[in-house]
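Sequence in, structure out. Go.
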Amino acid sequence: MQTMIDVRSDTVTQPTKAMREAMFSAVVGDDVYGDDPTVRDLETLGAALLGKEAALFVPTGHFGNQLALFTHCKHGDEVIVGDDSHIVWHEVGAAAVIAGVQLRTVESDKGVLDAAAVEKRIRVGDDIHYPNTGLICLENALSNGRVVPLAAMQAVWKVAQRHQVPVHLDGARVFNAAAHLGCNVKEITQYADSVMCCLSKGLAAPVGSLLAGSAAFIAQARKKRKLLGGGMRQVGVLAAPGILALNEMVKRLPEDHANAHYLAEQLSRLPGIAVEMDDVQINMVWFNLPPFLYGDVLMDALSEANIKANPPEAGRMRLVTHWQIDRAAIDRIVAVFAGLLK
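Output:
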């Protein structure tokens, strides 16, 4: 049988051999006591790379985002966020349950928020009927494959500063965003008071994310992490691959982006497939299929070729490259589509 190819997401990445070896040999201690040297090293490294005073290791990106809301806000606050953001669509309504906040959405242009529209959502004055605006959330890069320009982030940041509202950045793929923009990641994170970044996904660590911000913010978040059941013990075995993710895997993200462009180009040559080429900015390829390829016909053919992909929704499909997807794997994927479109 051919090797399995999995392009459902970059969340499916397996840890590298070096990561597995680092896990085996990691020096550990009880992190709730602050005794795990590998976790401390990861948090120090992450804070420095993200341009913040301190960082906190958390189990997941979802956990990191919700911990940020829980730490920044008071119960009953309002959080301004893009209507197509991960926090709105894919975090199970956790903002209402954990932080006790309500989300006030802003229509976005494929994830890019208009600063003037954000400003209109900010509650001004002491009207007893209004909740307080507690936080503005941005996302970069986005799961639609696009990257928010620095100028757009700066514009929202200036609005937030003017109204003294903090900004949190869902930076699950912020290193992908930096690779696309050709900038240091700090040039992105300078426009946020706190940032969450995933060590898994394209960076290939098996588990974990970082929440970074000021030292005072992270001190509060550490206690709230414990409240949420996120106090971990000898977790250096998971922090060790995170260090490799930041030191090594960040450097190869442009390869994933180049492979996504290659995949997009090959698919665009097939009759009936309309690739959203302008949206191929990181490691994701979105495209529309002809009606007869909706559903089981396509999925059965991919499964028979030992390829895992998420099925199309209303004829629209996404494929994601990562460190385990090379040009040969892409050629195999394209061959399945080509065979069905003959």
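Check: Residues 253-268 form the longest helix (16 residues). The chain has two domains: 5-12+252-340, 17-249.
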